[in-house]
Amino acid sequence: xxxxxxxxxxxxxxxxxxxxxxxxxxxxxxxxxxxxxxxxxxxxxxxxxxxxxxxxxxxxxxxxxxxxxxxxxxxxxxxxxxxxxxxxxxxxxxxxxxxxxxxxxxxxxxxxxxxxxxxxxxxxxxxxxxxxxxxxxxxxxxxxxxxxxxxxxxxxxxxxxxxxxxxxxxxxx
Length: 173
Description:
Strand content: 35-45%
Radius of gyration: 15 Å
CATH architecture: 2-Layer Sandwich
Shape: globular
């Protein structure tokens, strides 16, 4: 586990509208200098995104929110994110997130499922553009009493371009 460089408790998370299915009064966001990856020789990056949230819902419900194509857009980009095209939580599945294009970005993210262990782990690659780094997104779920601890890691950003992309993505989570 990495050395935490910041931790902030804030009001309702963007995907937790008051009265909504995931509402909770606070969430915790921690940005660390390292992250768990399947490649132990990978050097830590200050650009890695590491977010931990606790939800008062069973792991199976959170898994469904992460893997049901009709619900996935609610988790991405504060509920305005890309819709998954061709997604299935099966290793080897190639899929795309398709969102509204913006200047300098086509609106398409190419992905491939690397690991899926229902209802605990979903890991996939993320390529936002031909000049971007191939990065890895990891969603880990851990039962916690009557709820679930959700850990989101997005790792593999390199260079100044990777730092900028990670900061932009971090504002959308």
